[in-house]
Amino acid sequence: QVQLVESGGGLVQAGGSLRLSCAASERPFSSYNMGWFRQAPGKAREFVAGISRSVGYIHYADSVKGRFTISRDNAKNTVYLQMNSLKPDDTAVYYCAATAILGSSRMGEYAYWGQGTQVTVSS
Question: What is the CA radius of gyration of the chain?
Fold first, then answer.
C-alpha cells in the first residue's frame, strides 16, 4: 500500500506563492500517476493537477492553469505543486493521490491518498 505524506502548506497573502510536496513510501513510485486535489470548507473535493508516471502527460483544472505547476522527481519519490499568484479562493486542504489510470481527474479513480495539508490565502 502506498503511503503519501504532504507538506508545505501554510498561510500566505494573496499574490504570494507556496510549494507543496508529497513524499511516497512505495517503490517504485514511478509506476503511479499522481494528482493533487483540494477541498475548501463546505465544498466538494476537486481536481487540481495531474502528472503521468513518466512526466509525459500533465493536466490542470481551468481554475489553476497558468498559476500552478505540477512536477515530480521519481528518484526522490516525490511530487510537487508550485502555486503562484495565489488567491483567497485557493484556500483549501490540499491532497496528493496516486492512481494507475493515466490522465484521470476523478477522485474515485485514485486509490491512495495523503492526509492533506492546509493552504490559507489571506486577502
Answer: 13
